[in-house]
Specification:
It contains 7 helices and 2 strands, in the order ααααααββα. By secondary structure, it is mainly alpha-helical.
Length: about 180
Amino acid sequence: MNQFIACGIVLIASAPVLAQGRAPASIQAEMLKDWTDLKETLMKIANEMPAEGYNFKPTPPQETFGRRVVHIAVGGDRFLELLGGKAAAPRIDAAAAAATKAGAMKALADSFDYGTAIIKEQTDQTMMQTVDAPFLGPSSRARVFTFVMGHTWDLYGQLAVYLRLQGRVPPASQRP
């Protein structure tokens, strides 16, 4: 009886989608959309900080804004390399890239482009295959991508604070 109830719930929940004639998106397609949207958001917030603000630190022990931006790129690349794609990871000299706005933004864009290439190589089946990832242990490729995206959103929150401490408003919070 429980199977019939579960099937009924799935059919009822799916009815609006089925009625509109749309099939659910693939895991790969959804991951690519989220990754592309994240790139746009991160490029906007990184661009919002003026070049001279890339050396700003809220307190002496904290990293500069530029170093936080480059951390997103370098950290993401390390995890994405675990997925075994054909695309080559960008080689980023973190210290040099973090020293300038142009360098940090290029590192960020290159990292996101690398992630896009890796996602495009995947299928729903390969997204569910297991890889061994630091901090996560055996995980699906999809889980590794969601980990990288979650980490990136965490750093987005840090970048928003850096901007506000400089009297700037993050792009996502700006009102026309």
